[in-house]
Amino acid sequence: MPYDRERSIQRNVRFMSDPGVRGALIRVNGFGAPDLPAVDALETFDLGREIGRYCDQVLERYLRFREAHDQFDDDWIPALKPYLGIAEHTCFLGGEVSYGGNTSYHHPAINDINDWKRLRADINTPHYKALLEGMAYFKSKSASYDFYAALRGGDGPMDIANAVRGNDLLYDFYDDPETVEELMDFCTGAADWTFKNQYPLASVVCGGYISGMTTWMPANSIGHLSEDASCLCSPAMYEKFGLPYTAKLLEPYDYAMMHVHSLGRACLPLIAKMDKIGTYQLSSDPNQPEAIDVYRQYEYLFENKVVMLDMTPSQIKDSLGFLKGRKTIINIETESALEAQKAIDMVRGI
What phi-psi label fits residue 206: left (phi over 0), alpha (psi between -120 and 50 degrees) or beta? Predict the structure, then answer.
């Protein structure tokens, strides 16, 4: 049976919105398809003038991928967003942006924790403006080319603070905790501000939105949010400077999607205290347990939650018993179409 977008999105919506649905969704993101047209490295664009050229390259690659992918009746969601590197989430607060390795880096905007009061969110910051223009461009093309315009996503308050202050923030936790708390309050507002800018530029899909992790979320949702800074601090420091502010950010929302790393898994029991987080995207790190192993270790935290992770076909085969009765979204990349189809068949049997 070939791919059908409406069938796929209905499966996704039901899976995400019905607490009684169990099992797994599977998305084939790579399968040894014919060579796809390349998207030039970010560092080769003048994004302030060439965001349209960048988006056209992304669109052409998507169209070629979709044509090859149509053989799979999986749960892939056709959605596009600009990816201009990690600086997108914080550059609007000032500080330089540099490019390399096909991503972007936001250099700290303040050299002293007390300078946080001069931070201002500016929608016209060049890199951030390019992001919003790219999102608007994709939304304008979405109906003609049959895809959804997705949200880009954002950072949690601690990640924003870490970006604008740099890793000296970790010293500030001990040296000037009161001022850190003031900065964290400010960053909580900044995290909400960037999503408020993104929502009008994203498609409304079955009453919800497609997250930056290409996952359907119900209305009045926020995400994906990143808690990468939890990898750099102790659970005690996260509980004081991370948890209360992310929880405050989530207060006006009904649902949230959270991106976390295996390196920061010790903070997962604290992150899980926030009931509004309905989906966790678990990311593997070098020299750390694989995401599926973190899922197993902390399975008690994910009852009635959706967990999304990358898996190999062999990991799927070894985890079929574990995945039964849970709610899991599996992303796979395989070497061949045959291998991808076998993985789909395994997941459909859960």
Answer: left
Confidence (pLDDT) at 34: 73
Whether the model clears a pTM of 0.85, i.e. scores above it, the answer is yes
Instruction: Report the chain's C-alpha Rg in angstroms.
Output: 20
Q: How many CB atoms lie within 10 A of CB 123?
A: 11
pLDDT at residue number 100:
92
Peptide bond into 224 cis (omega under 30): yes
Q: Please choose, from the candidates 273, 263, 262, the residue with its C-alpha nearest in 3D space to the C-alpha of residue 239.
A: 273
| pLDDT the model gives residue 324 | 95
Q: Splitting the chain (350 residues) into consecutive groups of 10 residues, what average pLDDT does each group show?
A: 95 96 97 88 95 98 96 98 96 96 94 97 97 98 97 98 98 98 98 98 98 96 96 97 98 98 97 98 96 98 97 97 97 96 96
Q: Can you give the chain as a three-state secondary structure string? A: CCCCHHHHHHHHHHHHHCCCCCEEEEEEEEECCCCCCCCCCHHHCCHHHHHHHHHHHHHHHHHHHHHHHCCCCCCCCCEECCCCCHHHHCHHHCCCEEEECCEEEECCCCCCHHHHHHCCCCCCCHHHHHHHHHHHHHHHHHHHHCCEECCCCEECHHHHHHHHHHHHHHHHHHHCHHHHHHHHHHHHHHHHHHHHHHHHHCCCECCEEECCCCCEECCCEEEEEECHHHHCCCHHHHHHHCHHHHHHHHCCCCEEEEEEEHHHHHHHHHHCCCCCEEEEEEECCCCCCCHHHHHHHCHHHHCCCEEEEECCHHHHHHCHHHHCCCEEEEEEEECCHHHHHHHHHHHHCC
pLDDT at 216: 98
pLDDT for the residue 277: 98
Alpha-carbon gap, residue 219 to 120, rounded angstroms: 29
